[in-house]
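Purpose: get a first structural picture of the assembly so the mutagenesis plan has something to point at.
Setup: two entries, given in the order below. No constraints added.
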Amino acid sequence: MQTASMLDFLSTTVGADWRLATPLIFAATGEAICERAGVLNIGVEGIMLIGAFSGFATSHATGDLALGFGAGMAAGFLTALVFAVFAVTIKANQIVAGVAINLLGLGLTSFLFRTYFISTGRGVDIARPLNIPFLSDIPYLGPALFQQNLLVYATIPVVIAAWGVLFRTSYGLTIRAVGEHPKAVDVTGKSVALYRYSAVLIGGVLGGLGGAFLTLAHANQFVENITSGRGFIALSIVVFARWSPIGVFFVSLLFGLFYALQLQLQADPNVRVPYQALQALPYLTTIVALMLVRNRWDAPSMLGIPYWKA
Amino acid sequence: MSVPSAPILQMENISKRFGRVSANAAASIEVGEGEVFALVGENGAGKSVLMSILCGVLRPDAGRILFKGQPLKLGSPLEATRHRIGMVHQHFMLVPNLTVAENYVLGERSPFRPLGRLTEVAACIVELSRRYGLEVRPDAFVRDLSVGERQRVEILRILYQGVELVVLDEPTAVLTPGETDRLLKLLRELARDGKTVIFISHKLDEVMRVADRISVMRDGKVVFTTLTDKTNPRELARQMVGRDVRTDLPARAAAPGRVVLSVENLHCRNDLGLPAVRGASFEVRQGEIVGVAGVSGNGQSELAMALAGLIPTTEGTIKLNGEQISGLSSRAINRRPVAHVPEDCAANGVVLPLPLTENAILQSYDRAPFATLGMLNVRAIESHTQVLVDQFHVRTDGIQAPIQSLSGGNQQKFVVARELARHPDLLLINQLTRGIDIGASELVMRAVLEQRDLNKAILLISTELEELFALCDRILVIYEGRLIGELPPDRGRLEELGLLIAGEVAEAHRSQGGLTQSPNSTTAME
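Result (structure tokens, whole complex):
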């Protein structure tokens, strides 16, 4: 390959990487906050799907993209609320509740999609790239980093804000304490349940946003199971990133890279690998990544365990 | 009945039930301002529950609390904090993955306040720690601190919050004798500063040393209140147990029989991979109790685990009834007549969420009479469990209750009961009476002596010198993984023993002539 085309390839890959990592960054950041509070929400996949569908449906009906994203986040919030009622108030097994949310998300969105949209075939206008003046004109670097849509840029402030809240505010301190030693929070008179609810709901909003990104900024359509396991990958990203939002950002980029490579290589006629094998790349990476991270030191010690007041 | 001159706190007719168990039954106490008030009682007598009610962590079913003459809103930790009542819980309320300073600001209001203030808090902690002589580093992570250090952190937190009434729940249970002395001194200092201290304990000597007044709880009621000057440990013990405690234990058995356990030049490593036991050699014979004395952390945990097959040995041999057992798995050793009461029963002796019945058969679940052809004989298991519970007066909600619902002392009694019921030739005990109360201590100590009289060989590892003196036929001293001496259980030589466990061999030697001293004390092998 010549240098120019090599650079082209790199530029496109990096650009696609960040874009494809964006839904993962949102969902995994939310999940990291949720797990820091000791709640394991494996229902992210379902929350993302519901966010993706709600965003698409709203945007489809109103033609308003912002409203679509708002609807995606609101749907994520409500779905997470259902999960929180089971996981925090009823103290149901969090895995079971999470599986239920995933099944609900897949079933409900598929049903609604088939009922109302399957015959229309009409997409929505997706979020347009926002070229940053001057910077976007830099050769190679410009198209890679500075011709993205607003939400892709938004990953940076969201991740920094999440880190700041978790590690630089007393709210975040309490969230972390709730995930480690809830009783220590309880005896100070603060409500463990309230903090857990808030963390689950933040996770839901970000999960819904990540889902809506898929239909409103990535594809212009909803298809059944459009998330295709991104929620589960977000779960493993959180582990790999050791429950840190900053870590989530970079690990997501790593996973995004495999999505991007997979697409690029599929498009390249010189690569003679069955496309199914390439599509499996992100999932294979997940397995390998989880095998590499054996040290569970950073896991919140009360992860997945409901808190019973004495 | 003694009544304080100016009561700062009155708890009246507090009642609290958990299921069928009545934890507090119309318990009342009065505490005077600026005094050290001790609340004593056996495990499960309701002391902790009463104090949790005071601090708002639990809501009582009935009763009222007056603080400085005003009724407190019940069941609200915030109310307690507002009135400057603070508690050091028995199980520390510190988040291990946070720093000391972060733990201190955890309870504060205003959730969105930025944490930039941490440096201020740290300065304040340093200042306080100097004033009270409690060394605490504000930027240390709690997970890196020892138990004694964590307790200092907890106490200083209470002082940082500026409380007027301090409750300490069994604060000395986890401390070494030296740390205990310092803590008791601190409590007096706090009282001198005008703070009121409530001190929960079942160690009567500590209570006698530090308290102004004492209330005794039994079965959820306050049965006795007195000025410390007007009572003695014997009376307190009687009030706690509800009967006379016999401190006279049966006389020692005459002659040890054949060798049951023989250890030669044993070496093993701790979990950090460092040498922990460094060449221990000794024997335990039928019908004798051999004690191992030492300050914790000198290799006795590893010694016990190596004997039980829980960690590998790196050198040396262990023989049981003449058969080489070093290198065998713990399961294989379990199949042999060895019983083991581990150091931390809650962690290593029981499976907390399982019921008593299943904990009773942890080692013998797959054998007659508890199982036939892989099927559990529920009736045999239940009757066996019931026998254990009855024999050792284990206070429980029933044999189907999860063992974690028992207090620590009752768990310990249950484990001791289970191990003794296995009719071992060799009984390994690491800490017999730690964390359990007088009545229970007396019971388990008697049971161990009975085993000796049944010609069992018993190895008793303990940090409680009193316990060793009361039970052992001879006492080995472990220091930095070596057995550095052996003493008869002669109370006159307490000082010598104290020097030995501190590693002062030469000093000990000087203080008393007749010390048998060699790096590998093998006097029993003659």
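Confidence is low (pLDDT under 50) at residues 514-526 of chain B.
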